[in-house]
Write a structure and sequence with these properties.
Structural class: alpha+beta
Distance between the termini: 115 Å
Shape: globular
Strand content: 35-45%
Oligomer: single chain
Low-confidence stretches: 38-47, 65-82, 113-128, 363-373
Largest sheet: 15 strands, antiparallel
Number of helices: 8
Length: about 375
């Protein structure tokens, strides 16, 4: 058996064999080589797909912005997105009144086989005074614009005509309570907004009853004035044009009827609204003759009427008074006409009938109502 001292000596020898007798030296060249190998492995590692997607999106957006900027730079024009002016509440009412007034007058003109001047001559033979003949061609326009004090409603609808990007249906109410619809298809050919001043132009077709007209609408800046022009034509030298602008701090529509390139009639209308009532001031001039008429919608004994106060100077004869207009329905044919009662201030009352060209088109109205639903 081993003695206790021998066992202790054996353990000591075994432990000391594992203790280094000198300080270890670091080989820095080997360590550096190992670090480079680690970095190379990190760089070569495959990036994730999300990084590739981010780079691709960023590069695409940058290239599109660069191309758009280059186009604007070389064209020296601001880049504007195509818009629908009828979607802008600031212009809806003005554009709608301009469209309805020109289309109504154009349809009256187109519906007759005689010229505008010949039509006035025929009316003069039926009427007893030029005070009435002056406004007869405009009665349908006034009736539809008044709309029983409800005005004109606007509905922007997705276009179902591949030739036009926008579709708008204008609706109003006549004196009989029937709805009248006007359908516009158009393209916005220009739309520029610069320092809060907007200019635009639209072109398209106008569908009203059995008629189709071409039209151009535009908003321009002339000096300090904003002018909205709406021109409806049957594709020839005959057209009706409405120009809306501010005159003497008042906004008015200047309307002219052109036949074969010559102006045959000019008038101005101003729309006043107060407490839900709509009053239309109508001014007419033809050489030295002129007239001023104030139209207002009213109900009398359950009958819808247009009441008028007028003052005219025709052939150097001054006249003033009041008129009352209601719709007369032929019970056999269903056709309608205007029954006009005239009460001059200094003469006896008289009355007569006038042709009405705004009869309700039931089929057209029904189609439009179904489409809106």
């Amino acid at each position: 058996m081993m003695m206790k001292n021998e066992i202790k000596k054996l353990f000591k020898t075994n432990i000391e064999s594992h203790i280094p007798t000198s300080i270890p030296k670091v080989d820095w060249s080997v360590l550096a080589s190992n670090q480079i190998d680690v970095l190379d492995t990190t760089i070569i590692s495959k990036p994730s797909r999300s990084v590739f997607k981010f780079k691709l999106v960023f590069t695409t957006v940058f290239m599109i912005a660069l191309v758009a900027f280059s186009i604007g730079l070389f064209n020296d024009q601001p880049i504007a997105f195509v818009q629908n002016p009828y979607a802008n509440v600031a212009y809806q009412n003005t554009l709608s009144v301009s469209a309805v007034s020109t289309a109504t007058l154009m349809s009256n003109y187109t519906a007759t086989t005689v010229s505008y001047n010949q039509a006035l001559s025929l009316i003069s033979k039926l009427s007893t005074t030029e005070t009435v003949t002056t406004i007869e061609p405009y009665l349908g326009m006034i009736e539809t614009i008044t709309g029983q004090n409800l005005g004109i409603s606007t509905a922007n609808i997705v276009s179902d005509n591949p030739l036009y990007e926008s579709k708008v249906i204008l609706s109003t109410i006549d004196l009989l309570g029937n709805q009248i619809h006007y359908t516009l298809y158009f393209n916005t050919t220009s739309y520029v907004e610069d320092e809060e001043l907007i200019q635009f132009e639209i072109e398209g077709i106008f569908l009203y009853k059995d008629f189709q007209f071409d039209f151009i609408g535009k908003k321009e800046i002339e000096g300090d004035e904003e002018i909205i022009t709406f021109k409806t034509t049957n594709g020839s030298l005959n057209y009706v044009e409405s120009v809306y602008k501010i005159e003497d701090n008042e906004s008015k529509y200047n309307i002219k009827i052109v036949e074969n390139g010559l102006i045959v009639s000019e008038s101005k209308i101003k729309i006043n609204e107060e407490d839900g009532d709509r009053e239309i001031d109508f001014e007419y001039s033809d050489g030295s003759n002129y007239g001023s008429y104030q139209f207002k919608y009213e109900q009398e004994d359950g009958i819808n009427l247009l009441k008028i106060k007028y003052q005219t100077m025709i052939d150097d004869i001054e006249e003033s008074g009041q008129m009352k207009i209601e719709i007369k329905i032929d019970q056999l044919t269903g056709t309608t006409s205007y029954q006009i009662f005239v009460q001059p201030d200094d003469e006896d009352e008289y009355e007569f009938e006038s042709k009405r060209n705004v009869d309700h088109d039931e089929d057209d109205a029904k189609d439009n109502e179904d489409e809106e639903d």
